[in-house]
Amino acid sequence: MALEVSLLSGWLPWTLESVAVIALLVAVGWRDSRWRTRKLPVIAIGAAAAGLLTARVVLPAAGVTDPLPLSVWLWFGVVVGSLLVLIVGWNAPRRVTGHAATARTVNWRHRGAAAVAATLAAVVCANGVNQFVGYFPTVGDAVAGIENKQVPGEVSLHQLTTKPDPVAQKTGKLVKITIPATPSGFKHRPELVWLPPAWFQKERPALPAVEMIAAEHSKPENWIRIGQAVQTAEHYAARHHGAGPILVFVDPTGGFGNDTECVNGPHGQSEDHLVLDVPQYVEKHFGASADPDKWAIAGFSMGGTCAIGLVTEHPEAFRHFVDISGDEAPNTGDEAQTVANLFGGSQAAYNAHAPLTVMAKHGPYPPITGQYLDGTEELTHIRVAREFIAAGKKVGITSTLTVQPGGHNWQFATQAFSYAYPWLADQLLSA
User: Fold this and answer.
1) CA 160 to CA 153: how far, in whole Å?
2) Cα(426)–Cα(244) distance, integer angstroms
3) Transmembrane segments in this chain: where (predicted)?
């Protein structure tokens, strides 16, 4: 099916790139010597300068901290270059075979090709970012995400029934919920809960729970659509007679571009939502255990940073964590930018959310367990994880680091969570 075509590899990305290059070559054309020796070099320099300015100034100022691959910037340059070819070459003379260069204007073939090149290059550039982070693996995923389609298998709270359900007793149920922002007041999007098959048993125990936190630019369902968290949990449940924790796919940001890093501040009371609103609601409406030994945080990228941060700051609420590719501390740029953006300029507030500082100040913790998972390409994150492990060991936090092939993208997060989940479920169910 067309919707199953990969956006990360295969024929579609290659075709888009090839057609974009051909269109650019047609748009540039041969034309006259003035075009070739004067205007084209200026266009090339302009495209390169625009790329350099965006990479070094615009994105850091916007708080984008992860470096994008060179291919993305090359295609960004093609976009700018194509637009400059269209503008500068709109009335540029072209070479006419058998005659000297004339004042005849460039024809619509060049103009149309420049427009096509710019459009396709923009698509390729955007998909280059997508290939880097793995956000939309297929065309269907992109369509579903853009159109905000319902997650497959999702039901509303009103549709949920506690009566015997043969399907739910095999695979569990995914429920869309709206958690009241009480007491946090945090404005957030609808969230989701996956109830394991054990939840539908006649004698239902007070099950453990895991808050699932995605990356910075994300939606609550990303762990489901991209990270395959529900499939991972279902595989575990199938091997353990339906047992498993409740998975809560939370919204820590309230919007795609609102980076809260799971702290209270100018961007909203995200921390209170995750620590207070969510557990209270899940315990009340789904009968989850109120024992902090049976609560965990698992996250990727920003979510990984949130996982270690929330557990070290709130051991009264969470006692287990899975930190996949998390940072050393909340991060929206360099430290000065982060202090200004997330904490209203308060250095003390920043320090109160830096895990190494928090652990040292807190002293001995109740038994806490965790896992750090980083890709072989994430050398900084590996170093940070080792520092956390050493610091945690001094205060009663038992944790390990697993390094697997991969980089900072959803493909790595998916495999890392699949690896860590059985351990996490065992920790929660045996607590």
Assistant:
1) 12
2) 8
3) 12-30, 42-64, 70-92, 112-129
